[in-house]
Write a structure and sequence with these properties.
Blueprint: E1 4-6, E2 15-24, E3 28-29, E4 36-37, E5 41-43, E6 48-51, E7 54-55, E8 73-77, H1 78-88, E9 101-104, E10 116-119, E11 122-129, H2 134-140, H3 145-152, E12 157-163, E13 165-167, E14 172-179, H4 185-190, H5 194-210, H6 217-232
Parallel strand pairs: 8-9
Antiparallel strand pairs: 1-14, 2-5, 2-9, 2-14, 3-4, 6-7, 6-13, 8-12, 10-11, 10-14, 11-12
């Protein structure tokens, strides 16, 4: 099995803080194929239950491209939101990007694929980066937004729910497991060179095969395709 580490409860570990828990405020009309969007997330008070498919009372309108167990919860870092506030000259309040969790002190976009976080009584696992779409472009109303978001490589991360529980603003976020393969969300999303992407894919697939991480089906397929494309070209 590929080596990894688990952090015992009594050993201090780098931790962040959950600043806000956000869920859909209203389903809005959208000119996309679905006709509505659930991207309008806003902070809620109190503690919120987290289940296999995400936050209690939250929804995804475009279920073909969002949601499901591997994209149950979307997290975004305050530090990255601050970057965008400076870039755009506007506030980036919690929920603006459609995130469920706004966190501070934890580099979400540089989290290792398969990394696990304990938040409140729930445990969540990093799965895939957020890929910006036309709905996000319309939400922001910023010129060339999809391209800018992609090039900045500050995507945030989707999470699957390993253990159901409840979360609330002010909760500490503790990293309880980090796979040794070392491939981060930003590494994978930012890899444009075919050879680099294939190398990352090999590491992810090896860790998946060894049982050190369970890749999301989407990521497993992309990793296999990257490796296969390089092999086909010698």
């Amino acid at each position: 099995m590929v080596a990894s580490f688990s952090v015992p409860d009594d050993v201090p570990c780098p931790a962040g803080e959950l600043l806000a828990v956000c869920r859909v405020a209203a389903l809005l009309p959208d000119p996309g194929t679905v006709g509505i969007t659930a991207i309008d997330k806003r902070p809620v008070d109190g503690r919120v239950r987290v289940g296999t498919f995400g936050l209690y009372a939250d929804v995804q309108a475009d279920r073909a491209n969002h949601g499901g167990p591997d994209q149950a919860v979307y997290a975004y870092a305050q530090e990255d939101a601050d970057f965008w506030a400076a870039e755009t000259g506007r506030e980036v309040p919690a929920g603006l990007f459609g995130e469920n969790l706004r966190v501070r002190g934890l580099p979400v976009s540089r989290a290792v694929v398969g990394e696990r976080w304990r938040i409140g009584s729930a445990e969540l696992e990093v799965t895939v980066p957020r890929v910006p779409c036309a709905t996000f472009q319309r939400r922001m109303g910023e010129e060339r937004w999809v391209r800018r978001f992609t090039e900045a490589n500050r995507t945030g991360a989707y999470l699957r729910v390993v253990s159901r529980g409840d979360v609330g603003a002010g909760d500490a976020i503790v990293v309880v497991h980090r796979p040794a393969h070392g491939v981060t969300i930003a590494d994978w999303f930012g890899a444009r060179d075919a050879a680099v992407r294939a190398g990352l894919g090999e590491r992810l697939l090896a860790a998946d095969a060894a049982g050190d991480v369970t890749l999301a089906d989407e990521l497993r397929g992309l990793a296999a395709a990257a490796v296969g494309a390089t092999a086909a070209h010698g």
